[in-house]
Amino acid sequence: MSPRQSDSRQRLVTAAADMLAQHGFNATSIREMAKRADAPVGSTYHHFPGGKHQMVIEAVQLAGTRVGAGLEHHLQTGFAPGLRGFLAAWRDILLRSDFRIGCPVMAAAVEEPIDEAAPDVLMAVAQVFGEWEQMLVRVLVAEGHSRKISCDFATLIVASVEGAIVLCRAQRSIDPFDRVSRRLEEIVGVPKESRIK
Question: So what's the pLDDT on residue 3?
Fold first, then answer.
């Protein structure tokens, strides 16, 4: 694959991830992805013989890698400050986008395709969520928590952040995110003076 073809393919995956984050699964069309990626529609079928589902799976994986890299970066400072940094990053995304951007991984999980079942898409989503949870678990265990408690905390954090993002988008307000963040930080022991206000 030439560098130009590779760049076109990457632009298509990025466009798919951006569309998922803003519009959801069913509104993410191949034609619109190609337009946003500045790529010929025909090239999408060349790069993605599996069609829209293949593009969405790769978009979910890309988004998962990006969010995971951010989470891992924040967690290098330890669990409590890492969680605070991760929450602050999502808070910033919501505010900067005027609540128009959500999580593309979640978008692929909650919207049933109108054309056919997509168990392969759901498997990709489950894998990404699992990877994020494992990042949290590793740091919690390293800081002395039991594996069971660490797994519980990890699931609570991922579910809470994803749910807060949905509430913020629906209400066009950062208040739900701030309330969830305060309680999460309290539960996991972020010092009071460092918590999101």
Answer: 44
